[in-house]
Amino acid sequence: MRNVQAPHGLGGQNGRVPHPEQPISRRAARAAVATPRARGAWMSKVSLRMRWTAFAIAFCAVAAIFAVSAFSLSGARGPGGAASVDTSNAAAAAVALPGGADATAAPATGLPVPAQTGAAARCDDPAVVTALAAGKDEDVVAAFGGGAAFRGAVVNGAAPCVDLGDPHRLWIVVDKRRPLNPLDVEPTELVAPADMQRTVDGRLQPAAAEALTALVAAAAQEGVGAIGLNSAYRSFASQTRTYNGYVNSLGRDAADQQSARPGFSEHQTGLATDVAACDSGCGAIESFGGTRQGAWASANAWRFGYIVRYESGYTDITGYEAEPWHLRYIGPELAKAYHDGGFHTLEDFFGLPAAPGY
After folding, report:
1. What kind and span of H or E run contains 348?
2. How many domains would you assign to the chain?
């Protein structure tokens, strides 16, 4: 084929029109017909856009640096603006790193160091570890700093070594949403409280039995009258019979307001007892709340490590109607914190959800 001379300004470097079988793209056509002035204007616009883009990037970079600096300063200062450092757990939180570095030292970036919770440090305290391993619950509470400190650590999630579902611990919480595990668990040791009247041959865990003996003696010494034992530990099988008796006489819904289902009863822990006034023979437990003994127990049980577990007006939390005769042993330190804090349910005391139903 012969070449065709291109009109002025439309050819390539060789001044020829492209082969007909090679179509001209729109971009090539625009470039071919663009005048030097148009190209100059276009380049000017591109240059202006690039300058604005560069300015925006520089502005954002300066703003980011300023924000990081301000955040670092605010993180290093307390509410009043003065620099403050929490050293309460510094020694326990320090961790040796390669090269002599310290895990509590500020990172090279200058960002603030996250606050240490102290949870692991508290549970790793040798006194706590030893007491837990030995099953000495009162010593565990003391190692935490007392009942109030123990409760605070549990509620704030700073006591991962404390299991509120452990059936062999004083702090076990049993309600309609927190069954025993296993359901048919039995206490390791049970003994009968001494020197008191009783309607049954009830037994309790040793610490609870000793405390109940002291409570009954104090009530007599303070002129309140005699308090007797009506019920104490119940096995899974025994609680099954008790609960079924309520169901047969009241129906299931009403029974659930007055009796725990088997595997959901505090009596099965060996830490709960039902008491009665026994001035001239022991009366019914249902009348205990209206007696001198009932009023005294409500005000003084905490002195001996007991609390009234199901108080009037808290059925929507505990799931049970008031039982002023039902005393639950949690130990002197926790009972004092419970009393001093004005608590009325173990659910509130340990920051647990209400358990109005199964």
Report:
1. helix 346-349
2. 1
d(CA 265, CA 263): 6
Residue 287 lies in a domain: yes
Does 341 map to a domain? Answer: yes
- What pLDDT was estimated at residue 3? 38
Choose among 191, 185, 177: nearest CA to 346: 177
How far apart, in whole angstroms, are the C-alpha atoms of residue 286 and residue 298?
Answer: 15
**DSSP secondary-structure letter at 290?**
G
- Per-residue model confidence as pLDDT tens digits over 105-134: 333 333 333 343 555 678 999 999 999 999
pTM summary value: 0.68
- Measured distance CA(277)–CA(143) in Å, rounded: 37
Nearest to 189 by CA among 208, 174, 173: 208
Query: Which residue type does 87 have?
Result: T
Residue 107 in any domain: the answer is no
Of 300, 290, 354, the C-alpha closest to 324 is 290
Answer for the pair 270, 192: CB distance below 8 angstroms, yes or no.
no
Query: Which CA distances in Å does 241 have to 249, 260, 326?
Result: 12, 11, 19
Amino acid letter, residue 225? G
Query: DSSP string spanning 25-76?
Result: PHHHHHHHH--HHHHHHHHHHHHHHHHHHHHHHHHHHHHHHHHHHHHHHHHT
